[in-house]
Write a structure and sequence with these properties.
314 residues; mainly alpha; Cytochrome Bc1 Complex, Chain D, domain 2; 2 domains; two-stranded antiparallel sheet; 4% strand; TAT_signal
Length: 314
């Protein structure tokens, strides 16, 4: 017998009409999408953050060599003054595709001659192009974001005097889904750091070496292993890594693996010869050409920093 005064709805509780439920799901989906777009948006350094910075091109040349710009952006095999022509074209294989270094010479069309200083710093420290697109992290903005902006101002001043090149940039060879640039914003959320990997108290020489290695020279990009998404594994900092080319491994630079003295490391960074009279090969040849342009004190500082690293795997 049906109980008086109670409808079937009252017995089972209120129901939500299907149309309202779908509207709710759509609104929730849009909210999630909007939040995702917000947190993965390309970041920009405003002009106001750079006010008062004046660059010194002489100091900027040292930054140029320390930052290794020619190692990637000069033509393959470039020698001498030709290393100042940043026409791009070198290819870098990875698990995500092959990245091709672009023309970053001051050419107004083929290069970055139309950029201003804020565009330059935004690219180097946020990985964002003047068009508001993410750069791929094959470009080591993850390290350059730790650079002092005065150094970047000096570098920009030096850049103005570099020779322009009209060689066009080539497209990266990256397939789906890695070709979705917005996804780099998610990668940035997981991997961008605003502190040095090596913490703790360092003396002035060691701190200078840390700055050179971690911020400018971005040595960890090759000498530190990566996780499945391509981010640096900070728990194995400078502990060696597979060679992205697929040939061999890149050696560890931790003191338990690299047992050379501070003086021997500094000498190797100057002339490329190891203590047992072997010589540098591969991409390291270009790196040493850069390091040889720095003051001896900087090479000694890099060596001192390497001696402070924890053993590989600890």
């Amino acid at each position: 017998m049906k109980e008086k005064g109670r409808s079937p709805e009252a017995a089972t509780g209120p129901t939500i009409p299907m149309r309202s439920f779908l509207t709710y799901l759509a609104a929730l989906g849009l909210a999630v999408l909007a939040a995702g777009l917000l947190v993965t948006r390309p970041e920009v350094v405003p002009d106001s953050a750079l006010a008062g910075l004046a660059g010194d091109p002489v100091a900027g040349e040292a930054v140029f060599w320390a930052a290794g710009c020619a190692s990637c952006h000069a033509a393959e095999g470039a020698q001498g003054e030709d290393r100042l022509i940043l026409s791009g074209g070198q290819r870098f294989a990875s698990d995500f595709g092959t990245f091709v270094a672009p023309n970053i010479s001051p050419h107004p069309d083929a290069g970055i001659g139309e950029w201003d200083f804020a565009d330059f710093v935004t690219a180097l420290q946020e990985g964002t192009s003047p068009e508001g697109r993410h750069y791929y992290p094959a470009f080591p903005y993850t390290a350059y974001r730790l650079a002092e902006r005065q150094d970047l101002a000096d570098l920009w001043a030096f850049w103005q005097g570099l020779p322009p090149s009209e060689v066009p940039s080539l497209a990266h060879e990256v397939g789906f889904p890695f070709s979705i640039r917005r996804a780099v914003g998610v990668w940035n959320l997981l991997n961008l750091q605003d502190d040095f990997a090596l913490a703790g108290d360092l003396d002035a020489e060691e701190a200078r070496g840390r700055y050179l290695v971690e911020a400018l020279a971005h040595c960890a990009e090759c000498h530190t292993p990566r996780d499945a998404l391509g981010g640096l594994d900070r728990s194995a900092w400078m502990a060696g890594a597979p060679n992205p080319s697929g040939s061999g491994t890149i050696p560890a630079l931790t003191p338990d693996r690299l047992t050379w003295s501070v003086g021997e490391i500094a000498a190797y960074l100057n002339d490329g010869f190891t203590p047992d009279f072997d010589s540098a090969g591969g991409h390291m040849v270009s790196v040493i050409r850069n390091m040889a342009m720095l003051p001896e004190a900087d090479r000694l500082a890099i060596a001192a920093y390497l001696k402070t690293l924890p053993p590989a795997g600890e």
